Amino acid sequence: MSADASALALGRTFHQALVSADWDGIRALLHDDATWTLPGDNTISGTAEGADAVVERARRIASYGLNFELLHILASRENMALSLHNTARREDAVLDEYLATVCRLRDGRIASIETYLSDVPGMNAFFV
Q: For 30-49, how does the pLDDT look when each residue is reduced to its tens digit (9 = 90+)?
């Protein structure tokens, strides 16, 4: 399998694990020293360091009832990105954001994740 086909498959596997709350599945995709950086100033912002912290961040985000609509999986020569439309609603807040979650790969697993958002203020208001 080519490097870009492997990256696309890894992206599909990551997204499926996220939407199905398969935390062990996500953990298996990560290097032990993986990181995940999110913008903003809220309960999920900053950098999660280490695979267990990355999984905990995914679990925390999902606990808010998000719908993780996959728009595209994008591959570069060595990495991949998920283009998502995340939505959620609760009595006092609505989340409706587009994002790119860029995954840097090393030896076929995720070494780091950085998320780029269309609506950082909306994210801050939702994840309080």
A: 999 999 999 999 999 999 99
What is the third-level CATH fold of 3-126?
A: Nuclear Transport Factor 2; Chain: A, (3.10.450)
Q: What's the pLDDT tens digit per position in 87-124?
A: 999 999 999 999 999 999 999 999 999 999 999 999 99
- Tell me the domain boundaries of the chain: 3-126
For 73, phi then psi, to 5°, come to: -110, 130
**117-126: Cβ within 8 A, 24+ apart:** 117/38, 117/39, 117/40, 120/39, 120/40, 122/95, 122/96, 122/97, 123/39, 123/40, 123/42, 123/95, 123/97, 124/40, 124/41, 124/42, 124/45, 125/93, 126/42, 126/64, 126/88, 126/93, 126/94, 126/95
